Structure formats: C-alpha cells, structure tokens
Structure to design on (311 residues):
C-alpha cells in the first residue's frame, strides 16, 4: 500500500509538527510505503495535492493537522469544474494535529496518536457526507464539517487569517463576546429545499454536517456525517444578551436548543436581503468570502477511514 502523508506544520500553533516524529515512528514500525507532502491551510494550496491524488499512485491519504488541514485535503480530492472526484478509490484519513480537531474527534473518539495512525493505515473506508459550497463569483468547493454566516466570519477575520473556532482560545472567546455585543444582526433571505424565500434577521446561521466545531462548541447535537442532511441552526430574533447566553452555552457544550431556530434540509440559498449588508462566511473555521452562497449536502461524497467496528 502506498500512502500520501500530508503535514501542515503550522496547524495548532506547531502542534502537528511536534507530533510528526511520533507519527513517523509508527509508520516505520508498520513498514508502510509513504511519501510526505508539506502544506499549509489556505485558499489555492490544494492544487498540488489535487494533481498528486489524480496521478493514481496513492490509495490512501493521511493528513496530520486540524480542521483547516482537513478542509484543504478534502478539496484536493475534487475537480471544482466538474464537481466530482479527481480519482475514485482513494480514501482519506486524519490524525489530530490542530487545535479544534472536531473531525478527528468524530473519527477516532478518545484514541491516542498511535491508534489514530494505525486506523489511517488499516481502518475501513466509509462513505462520508460533505457540504457543496457554491459562493457567487468563486470556485466551487466543499466543506467537511460546518459552514456559518454572520458573527463567526467576522470573528475569524478579526482574530486573523487562518483563525479557527477554538473554544479554549481566549482571543477567540473575547472577540466573539465583543462581536455579539457590538454588531447588529444581518438581514438574510433564505430559500430552503425549494420553499418560498423568507427574510430573517440573523446574528448567526450554521449549516452543520457534524455536531461540534471549535474543539467542542456544541452547535447541532443531533447532526450526523452520514444521514444525507444538513442541520440548520439559526440565532434569530434575539437581543444581544440572549445571543450571548446562547453562544456561551454552545461554548460550554450544552445541548439545549432553546431560543434557536432548528431544522434539517438538503439545500439552502442564503443571500443578503435587499439593501442589506452582506455577511462573511466561515467554512471549517476559515474565512470563506461572503454571501450569497448556495449550500447542498453531498451524501457519501468522500470515503473517510474509520476504526474497525471491533476496535
């Protein structure tokens, strides 16, 4: 088996790089044939990876990094012009090396580093839903865990490029509180699964493929990566103090949905209402331009490597 190993040395403030020596030791003990590719999360960095994956040499791709790294690698599997895989039969595994690591936690649970690497080597590829993201005027891409518009995008922009939804980050938490208390809501027009368009005042809208982001911020407790649906969660018609209470509850991992608008859907179009300010988008913890956007669930779009059921 030939494996492509993708390392983001900057992930988690250098955490991925610090873990790399241990990952390399596990690979050596298992006598795996592998090749290392270093990268950084960010727009456009997936093109070289896309060419390598399309080349057909590797059947497995293992990324060492956080949710931003996972976002980049997932997009490298796809040709954005065709909106299709560049090559079938290639599966994706992830070793936690970032700060939030919500996807790695979903795949591996509480498993340690060596167990995560062993899963990437010999685990079972299983179909995994993705979110197709069509931002007006931009190249089509996928998100693997979460897309949001409103406060989240503003906070990512304020904290800095590449910032992630990190519940334990003081800088992020303080910036979030400031944004909730100072920014007015956005007027957005939502078209969900072909229903009539509705204009809503929104402080934050999440389209969740998984339940958490930012290292455990509980956004959509019942979301699943293999149910063929998006979980839509909206902070709407809230005062600043109500939004702050709800947001802090998410940071603390509370499962209560009180005060939120929640429903499931397969496709949604989000636009700024007429004469309204546009909102920034956040895709898997990265700033991803701004509205308008069309989002659609892509059932079983990518094979993720999971632990064997008996492990």
């Amino acid at each position: 088996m030939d494996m492509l190993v993708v390392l983001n040395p900057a992930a988690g403030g250098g955490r991925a790089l610090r873990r790399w020596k241990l990952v390399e030791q596990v690979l050596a003990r298992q006598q795996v044939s592998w090749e290392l590719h270093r990268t950084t999360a960010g727009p456009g960095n997936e093109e070289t990876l896309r060419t390598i994956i399309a080349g057909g040499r590797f059947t497995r791709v293992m990324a060492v990094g956080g949710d931003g790294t996972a976002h980049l690698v997932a997009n490298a599997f796809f040709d954005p012009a065709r909106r299709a895989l560049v090559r079938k039969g290639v599966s994706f595994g992830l070793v936690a090396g970032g700060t939030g690591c919500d996807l790695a936690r979903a795949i591996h649970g509480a498993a340690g580093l060596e167990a995560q690497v062993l899963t990437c080597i010999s685990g079972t590829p299983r179909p995994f839903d993705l979110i197709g993201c069509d931002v007006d005027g931009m190249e089509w891409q996928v998100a693997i865990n979460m897309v949001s518009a409103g406060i989240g995008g503003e906070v990512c922009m304020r904290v800095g490029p590449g910032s992630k939804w990190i519940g334990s980050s003081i800088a992020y938490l303080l910036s979030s509180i400031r944004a909730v208390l100072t920014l007015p809501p956005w007027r957005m027009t939502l078209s969900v699964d072909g229903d009539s368009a509705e204009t809503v005042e929104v402080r934050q809208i999440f389209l969740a493929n998984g339940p958490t982001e930012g290292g455990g911020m509980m956004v959509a407790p019942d979301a699943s990566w293999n149910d063929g649906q998006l979980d839509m969660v909206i902070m709407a018609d809230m005062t600043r103090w109500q939004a702050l209470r709800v947001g802090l509850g998410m940071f603390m991992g509370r499962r209560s949905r009180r005060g939120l608008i929640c429903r499931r859907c397969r496709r949604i179009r989000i636009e700024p209402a007429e004469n309204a300010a546009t909102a920034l988008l956040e895709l898997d913890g990265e700033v991803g331009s701004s509205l308008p956007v069309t989002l659609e669930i892509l059932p079983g779009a990518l094979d993720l490597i999971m632990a064997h059921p008996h492990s």
About this structure: The first strand starts at residue 2 and ends at 7. The domain at 2-122 is CATH 3.40.50.10330 (Rossmann fold). The mean pLDDT is 89.
